[in-house]
TrEMBL record:
One of the primary rRNA binding proteins, it binds specifically to the 5'-end of 16S ribosomal RNA. One of its GO terms (cellular component) is cytosolic small ribosomal subunit. GO terms for molecular function: rRNA binding; structural constituent of ribosome. It holds the Pfam family Ribosomal_S17. Keywords: Ribonucleoprotein, Ribosomal protein, RNA-binding, rRNA-binding. This is Small ribosomal subunit protein uS17. Belongs to the universal ribosomal protein uS17 family. The keyword Magnesium does not apply. Gene3D superfamilies: Nucleic acid-binding proteins. Part of the 30S ribosomal subunit. GO terms for biological process: translation.
């Protein structure tokens, strides 16, 4: 089974080797027919602590590394405003 790859914004880099990434998805509501935005946060493994808050990153599904961490940072797409 292929590994899922998602792109989102880093919202927290306070933990060691871990970042929290917010993934936003947009879809049309089936009844109201308006575009709805939903977001979810994922904990991802960042081995070198390179990602900072505000960065846009690409994450990949991997084996469970802890209770919450089942994603790994693939690459840093763009730097945030604070960098």
């Amino acid at each position: 089974m292929p590994k899922r790859i998602l792109q989102g914004v880093v919202v927290s880099d306070a933990n060691d080797k871990t970042v929290v990434v917010r993934i936003e998805r947009r879809f049309t509501h089936p009844l109201v027919k308006k575009v709805v935005r939903r977001s979810k946060k994922y904990h991802a493994h960042d081995e070198q602590n390179l990602c900072k808050s505000g960065d846009v990153v690409r994450i990949e599904e991997c084996r469970p590394m802890s209770k919450l961490k089942t994603w790994r940072v693939l690459e840093n797409v763009t730097k945030g405003a604070g960098a």
